[in-house]
Amino acid sequence: MKNALFALLVAIPTALITWIVARGAYERPLGECQAAAKTTNVAPTNEVTAKAEPEVESDPDERLSDFVEKPLEGFTITDEVVLYGRSGLFEYINGGAPLYIDRNFRKLVAAEMKSNGGGDLTCDIYDMRTPSDAKSIFDAENSTNVTTANFGDAARTGSLSLVFRKGQYYVKLTAYDTKAEATLPNLARVLLTRME
């Protein structure tokens, strides 16, 4: 009696598991799917139930890189576009990283460029996670030798530079010569259009 009860207790769960696995692997024949589609006006599929694809948010790193990797009207990338995280930031801005990290820094995309007019410049776009964090770093890096400019949420120009913030982004454009300096407002406009 004990042996029969034991065999039954082992057989029932095994049979149940086998049935569940087999049922899950079952695909309806295409003919059945087409017949169901005719009555429901749904395109035939070989799946038992069609699942809606979840909306995928764009990758924030990809979005950040796209600001400069896609062709920029009037500018050419002259070196590899680099995406920096927290550890790379220490190497890139030697000593200045804590100021950014304390203000919720996420990533930086850096690109060396040449304007079509011949001047060389650097474009640094910092993703600070939130507009208030971008404002915080913008305010912290203020200097006395700058002029307020009308770009993005706030901007200022200095000798060979244009700095602005838009949403969660803090952007520093640095020219190496006066030819490039004259093109900084054009580059800022192109970047702002991409940030919309």
Q: Which second-level CATH architecture of the largest domain applies? A: 3-Layer(aba) Sandwich
DSSP helix fraction: 40-55%
In CATH's first tier, which class of the largest domain applies? Alpha Beta
When the domains are counted, the total is 2
Structural class: alpha+beta
Distance between the termini: 76 Å
Mean pLDDT equals 80
Can you walk through the features of this model?
By secondary structure, this protein is α+β, with helices and mostly antiparallel strands. The protein has two domains: 2-40; 60-195, Protein Transport Mog1p, Chain A (3-Layer(aba) Sandwich), CATH 3.40.1000. It is 43% helix and 22% strand. It has helices at residues 2-25, 30-40, 60-69, 86-92, 97-101, 131-140, 178-195; strands spanning 75-77, 82-84, 107-115, 120-127, 147-149, 154-158, 161-166, 169-175. Strands 1, 2, 3, 4, 5, 6, 7 and 8 form an eight-stranded antiparallel beta sheet that branches. A hairpin with a 2-residue loop joins strand 6 and strand 7 (161-166). The longest helix has 24 residues, at 2-25. It is globular, with a radius of gyration of 29 Å. The relative contact order is 0.11.
